[in-house]
Write a structure and sequence with these properties.
There is one protein chain. The protein is α+β, with helices and mostly antiparallel strands and 81 residues long. It has one domain. The chain is built from two helices and two strands; from the N terminus they run H-H-E-E. A two-stranded antiparallel ribbon has the order 1-2. Strand 1 and strand 2 form a beta hairpin. The longest helix has 22 residues. It is flat, with a radius of gyration of 17 Å.
Length: 81
């Protein structure tokens, strides 16, 4: 199975899932159910987006996802930085 795994397609699916969560409409729920739905949507987006941003490598049947969680470097946004 590992030979058939298309890691680029897998990462793309996770990006699409993250986008779908962002576009998801809020169902007609209120109170604690509404809060739980919103919290779950936030967690779903976070999980899907992190994997969607991962660098992926499959070597000898081992799938490795590298996810850079470091904050952006503010110097990179400055001209000449």
């Amino acid at each position: 199975m590992a030979e058939a795994l298309d890691t680029d397609a897998m990462i793309k699916r996770f990006r699409e899932r993250a986008h779908a969560v962002k576009q998801r409409n809020l169902p007609p729920v209120a109170g604690p159910d509404r809060s739980r739905f919103i919290e779950q949507a936030q967690l779903d987006f976070q999980d899907f987006a992190m994997i969607g941003d991962a660098d992926c490598e499959l070597v000898d049947g081992i799938l490795t996802l590298r996810i850079d969680l470091r904050p952006p470097d503010p110097a990179a946004d400055r001209p000449g930085g």
